[in-house]
Amino acid sequence: MAATPLHPQTYLPDAEVGPLHDALAVPAAGSDQQYLVTGTGEQVPVPLETLRALRQVIEAMHQGLAVTVVPQSKTLTTQQAADLLGVSRPTVIKLLEDGEMPFERAGNRRRILLHDVLAYRERRRTQQYAALEALATAEEDDPEVVLDQLRTARRAVAARRRATTTS
């Protein structure tokens, strides 16, 4: 089999993905281990991370979505990390300097392990969800109370503006 070129590639959904979707949805013999069968009948175990990727791709295609596969190096530049996190490059540099993610220097360039960027993203998401949950459970969650607080705050800001412009 020829090697597949390593560049971003988009795959369109295929109507024949249904049986594969069903086969990957059910773990083999009560475990999460799956096997591929070679042309000679040999069973080859599929690594867990590969299985997760296959399940995600097949699930998306089963739902009629196109899938883009973008090969990534295990080490990223600050720009690649920024793109992955959805933030600016200076923000990533600040995170590195603040010790939020470990990195190595190669000359005057910073290199970040993909694993560390993904771990930071997961920590950040967990913190964001916790903050949202805390807001949702606060007593000020009543829309009328929040609206009254906003009105009061706006009036206070307007009064301060008037006081500084007339002085």
Automatic annotation (TrEMBL):
It comes from the Bacteria. Residues 76-125 form the Helix-turn-helix domain. Pfam families: HTH_17. GO terms for molecular function: DNA binding. This is DNA binding domain-containing protein, excisionase family. InterPro entries: DNA-bd_dom_put_sf (IPR009061), HTH_17 (IPR041657), SinI_DNA-bd (IPR010093), WH-like_DNA-bd_sf (IPR036388). SUPFAM superfamilies: Putative DNA-binding domain.
